[in-house]
Amino acid sequence: LLIDTPPVEQAGRVSSHEAYVMRVTPSQLDLIELYDPSVGGRQPKRGGDHTSWSEQEHPSLFTSFYLASSENPRYVWIRVQTTSSRLINVEVHSFSEMQRKDVFIEMMAGCYLGLLLLFFGWALNAYIVDREPLLVWFLLKQFGALIYALFLLGYLRMYFDSIISAVDIDRMTKIVMILYSWVAAIYQMVLLKELDPPAWTLAVYRWILNILPFSLILLLFDYPIESAVLNGLAVMLFIALGVTMTALGRYPVRQGEVEFHMLPKGVMVTLHLLVFASAFFSVGPLFGGGETSAYAVYAPLMHAILSGVILMVIIQIRSIRLIRHQARISAQYEN
Q1: Cα gap 48→57, rounded to integer Å
Q2: In 3D, which of 171, 146, 145, 141 has the Cα closest to residue 157?
Q3: Disulfide: which of 4, 85, 157, 170 matches 73 by Cβ 3.0-4.6 Å?
Q4: Predicted TM-score of the model (pTM)
Q5: Residue ranges of the chain with pLDDT lower than 50?
Q6: DSSP-derived 3-state class of residue 204
Q7: Is 24 within 8 Å of 64 (Cβ atoms)?
Q8: pLDDT tens digits, 214-236
Q9: Which H or E element spans position 303?
Q10: What are residue 81's phi and psi, to 5 degrees?
């Protein structure tokens, strides 16, 4: 990479060798080596999720390296070894600018985790009132999404750095990802069954569910790349079939009206297309998909938000229409 790191005035006690910071995302890259000729010596700097967080040069949720300032542009070399994604995003900023960006990322991560907890609490409250299977699977899925987000954003790697080895945390991340995919797939099937889709789509969906245990077996037998690809393929099939089932669903009717807990078909199809788009940007890099936006590293986090919005809207509409239905019954009884 050709970088330009001119001398800048830094606030505080920041040396010229720490004037700039290079950040490499996503967090699940196993090994990252940076060779900067300006530093001298032949040993590259190392990072990645197979490296202890305490050994990282710049304290951040993502792998970061210090870069020395230089009068002229220069080349640096990066070597990446990973079994999780072919997507890599590299940013270089001044020390002070990177500090501001780190604070912003941590604030957004806190808001994201808070939103997941909001959806979880909303569904838990609804489950206390109406104990239906859909809410059980949503609660399990949302709990899995919360744990997966803590892994993906680097919080658990930071908190358990002195307790669990970096390699074991990486393996746990992959296991959590597969289990989260499995629970999310079952939740989506339970939701889509209420749309009364064609029987053959449910049969195909159940057949695809059998792929995920094989993905876990491959991971446990130390085939992480094959496991990630198989899991990614299953996720894409689940989401694509979900869009198909939403479009072909007959949507139960009662006395000529849509069932009180369902959204209109057009809205459901649109929301599931957004879920498909988030899955595409998440899984695409596994198959070497072309260039993507730097924000694609956060795409795996979008599914939990979109599915939470879908269910929360359904719960809210269902509650309103149920209250109206009960009011009509009460009015008829009084008359």
Answers
A1: 12
A2: 171
A3: 4
A4: 0.81
A5: 12-13, 255-260, 290
A6: helix
A7: yes
A8: 988 998 888 888 888 888 888 88
A9: helix 302-334
A10: -125, 120
